[in-house]
Automatic annotation (TrEMBL):
Signal sequence, renumbered to the chain: none
Domain of life: Bacteria
Pfam family, one: Rep3_C
Taxonomic lineage: Bacteria, Pseudomonadati, Pseudomonadota, Alphaproteobacteria, Rhodobacterales
Family, similarity comment: Belongs to the initiator RepB protein family.
Gene3D superfamilies: Winged helix-like DNA-binding domain superfamily/Winged helix DNA-binding domain
Domain Initiator Rep protein WH1: 18-159
Name of the molecule in the record: Replication initiation protein
An example Gene Ontology molecular-function term: DNA-directed DNA polymerase activity
Organism whose genome encodes this protein: Palleronia caenipelagi
UniProt record, GO biological process: DNA replication initiation
Length: 393
């Protein structure tokens, strides 16, 4: 399965991974493969705003694309979202003062689908746990798309957070069966069945699919297996899939220049990942050379978005074309981030050759696609260009 096309996503969705709270990982064993993938993408989409807002939105087609399933199958999507709302998350951990805290919550407090947009929310208690920076594991979304078994993905999630220590530590078999979502099955109370149907296939898929290699070890009492642990090593053949969590980027001089002009840590790392250090440095130099710029951060964002060049000549704002470009900017700004992702992806899918290249370079300001862009927005917002002479330039 191909990787998620980052060039058609923006914001948090451009990341390669999602930070998952260990509590969420431990209680989601009963989820189907699709539900587990949806849970990760929904968390990725919401992560930056957890604690700041209560509800979140993502375009349904974008959601389907990121988990790799047929976007037209809304019944399956509804069923999977229903499953997330009906699945209980349970955590048992120490708080900041060393006191034991137990809690329980639905994975999603609600989810709706309306006009192609999925709106959802977490309970306040679970949202607080999900954004706790001390207890995160990083789950690579490009890797999760490759899994075909929910048990294998569950095992990967529960092992990956121990990659630095090299071992999960010993789990009682009852705990392991719960992590795999088979705690209620009497069939899997027999270790021979658990090993043949769950452990061996899941280990094989993790080793073949992911950026880690794991090996199971068991501990016995008498002749009965009582505990299991997994030894973990990085998979050198798939190490390229590992996420750089930003530690490397933060050491560079270009990152320092971005922070100096007021760019946030998250946005600085996002721009460096999207555009590369050389391109960001060129745009920083361009902005610095303009003189008298009141808001360097905003100007840099526009320079990166619209690929400002030293030789570029601004379009006269009084021209009809300039008026239409201004209207296009307004139309784009009025859309939600997930809608903008979907709009760009849909329009880009209609292009090929030089026109596609020009759109990738200049976005909605693409001169080569101006007539098609106007027609596209007219379809989305009827009479969008009334008074702006939206005929072909």
């Amino acid at each position: 399965m191909s990787d998620i096309p980052r060039d058609i996503l923006t914001g948090a969705l451009r990341r390669s991974s999602v930070k998952k709270h260990v509590a969420a990982i431990h209680v989601s064993g009963r989820l189907t493969l699709l539900q587990r993938k949806l849970s990760n993408v929904l968390l990725l989409n919401a992560y930056d705003l957890l604690g700041q807002q209560q509800t979140f939105q993502i375009d349904a087609k974008t959601l389907a694309m990121m988990v790799g399933y047929n976007s037209n199958d809304t019944d399956t999507l509804k069923q999977s979202l229903r499953g997330l709302a009906e699945t209980v998350a349970e955590w048992d951990m120490l708080d900041d003062n060393g006191r034991q805290e137990w809690g329980v919550s639905a994975l999603l407090s609600f989810a709706t689908l309306k006009e192609g947009v999925c709106t959802y929310a977490y309970s306040p208690a679970l949202a607080e746990k999900l954004r706790d920076p001390k207890v995160f594991a990083l789950i690579n979304l490009n890797i999760q798309r490759r899994f075909t078994s929910g048990h294998a993905l569950a095992l990967y999630e529960n092992c990956y957070r121990f990659v630095r220590t090299g071992s999960t530590g010993w789990w009682p078999l009852d705990t392991f069966r719960r992590l795999m979502g088979v705690a209620d099955s009497t069939y899997y109370e027999i270790y021979k069945h658990l090993n043949a149907k769950i452990i061996k296939p899941a280990v094989a898929e993790v080793n073949a699919t992911s950026n880690i290699v794991i090996r199971a070890e068991t501990r016995k009492r008498g002749r009965s297996v009582t505990d299991i642990r997994f030894l973990i090593e990085k998979n050198p053949q798939l190490a390229i899939l590992d996420l750089d969590d930003g530690a490397g980027l933060r050491k560079g001089p270009i990152y320092a220049r971005l922070i100096e002009i007021g760019i946030s840590d998250r946005l600085a790392r996002q721009w460096l990942s999207e555009h590369g250090e050389d391109e960001v440095e060129r745009k920083l130099d361009y902005v610095a050379g303009q003189g008298g710029v009141r808001n360097a951060a905003r100007y840099l964002a526009a320079a990166l978005r619209d690929d400002y060049q030293e030789t570029a000549t601004p379009v006269a704002p009084s021209s009809e074309r300039g008026a239409r470009l201004g209207r296009i900017r307004d139309l784009v700004a009025a859309r939600t981030p997930t809608q903008r992702d979907a709009d760009k992806r849909l329009f880009q899918s209609r292009l090929s050759g030089p026109k596609r290249d020009d759109f990738e370079r200049h976005g909605w300001m693409s001169a080569l696609n101006h007539a098609e862009i106007c027609a596209f927005w007219n379809d989305i917002v009827p009479d969008a260009f009334d008074g702006h002479d939206a005929a072909a330039p």
